[in-house]
Specification:
The chain is built from 3 helices and 5 strands; from the N terminus they run βαββααββ. It is an alpha+beta fold. The protein has a single domain, classed as Alpha-Beta Plaits (2-Layer Sandwich). Strands 1, 2, 3, 4 and 5 form a 5-stranded antiparallel β-sheet that branches.
């Protein structure tokens, strides 16, 4: 199993809307639409003047990761709707083998 870990940040005023977008649209769409997507979690914490989100999505293998993010799967996959809500994000994504 592969865990895909990514960081994004919002202004406090956009945090609830971004959280809803990820938990109500991105994760359910990935879980139902991508074979090998095994679910995920969204972690949230307030920092100095911004809100940090850590998204962890589990996949059966790298083929499922590619189905989600494309061939350049080590780069962030940030939909247009998320870009409108995020103030900044990590350009790279980390992948871990779940042990």
């Amino acid at each position: 199993m592969i865990a895909r870990v990514w960081y994004g940040y919002t202004e406090p005023a956009s945090a609830d809307e971004y959280e809803a977008f990820v938990t109500e649209e991105v994760l359910p769409d990935a879980e139902s639409g991508i074979e090998g997507c095994l679910g995920g979690e969204v972690l949230r914490r307030s920092l100095d003047g911004e809100v940090e989100f850590v998204t962890v999505i589990r996949f059966a293998d790298y083929d499922a990761v590619r189905a989600f993010a494309g061939e350049e799967y080590e780069s962030a996959h940030v939909p247009a709707a998320a870009r409108e809500l995020l103030s900044r994000w990590e350009e790279d994504v980390a992948h871990y083998e779940v042990v």
